[in-house]
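This protein record is not my work; I was only asked to verify it. The record follows directly below this note.
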Amino acid sequence: MPEEIHPFATLTPDFVLDALDHLGLTGDGRLMALNSYENRVYLAHLEPGTPLADEHRAVVLKFYRPGRWGAEQIEEEHAFAAELMEAEVPVVGPISISGRTLHAHGGFLLSVSPRRGGRSPELGDGETLEWIGRFLARLHQVGARAPFKSRPAVDVASYGVQPREWLLAEQQLPLEVERAWADVSQQALDVASGVFAQEQVKALRLHADCHVGNILWTPAEEPGGGPHFVDLDDCRSGPAIQDLWMLLSGERAERQQQLGALIDGYEQMREFDRRELALIEPLRTLRLIHYSAWIARRWQDPAFPAAFSGFGTPDYWRGQIHTLTEQIEAMEMPPLVA
């Protein structure tokens, strides 16, 4: 039987320009694919004098991966972005066209956003980290106003138990490593579950995938300068520390110093519950399991084998076994302090 064609294969330049035209916008023919594994994202330049062109020379079209989020979940993301922008939190949300931010074309759900660039922030600079801490506190002030109704949470079940069960049932790990990975991942989840139960986590709406690649920085002297998000595609509910811990790197002393700067900034705007520091290593553990399942679930997308060529090999899973073993030890150590 011929291999099944992935849905994203139909996103030809003509299809993308047709989608733009379907929304009443006129492109000048220039398209550029932007980096995105989960969705497909394009920069489209608009014809001068046509709708939106006076305000935006170019827009960003995002075609959502079919089957990942439902329309209700995407619209909840868009509503969160609008709420943040209303509170003057620097987030780039989708543009409303004909009263809607989510549209359908050719079997895809899509949105259109303004173009806004930037560079990765310098996380080695204490003032930058402090600024990001203030930025995240402002985001969390809005996130704490009300819960998500349809989007999932960052928790042991959805980020650990379910991905692990799916990998063991569907992924067919190499026999020489399957039992060892099953045992160490279960042990790691048991430890993580114990920490979560002990800390009684208070959840709020989050960015939830806040690593350095998802924060863009513009010079302070420019209008709206500083950190901003251009996408909330992964937003979920969870503890506030979820949006801080992925910004930490290096040895323990370096991470502790970085954490101190982040929380110094954060607490200028919002109180931070220090008990959540105990969740950093459990959250890192959950992300490791979730990440492996994420790659495996996307393997039919040609972009994934090209980007993760070593995935699924015995050496890959041996590396995961080693890392999870280290995580068990890390979860049993005293948490970072700030």
Residues 7-114 form a domain with the Phosphorylase Kinase; domain 1 fold (CATH 3.30.200.70).
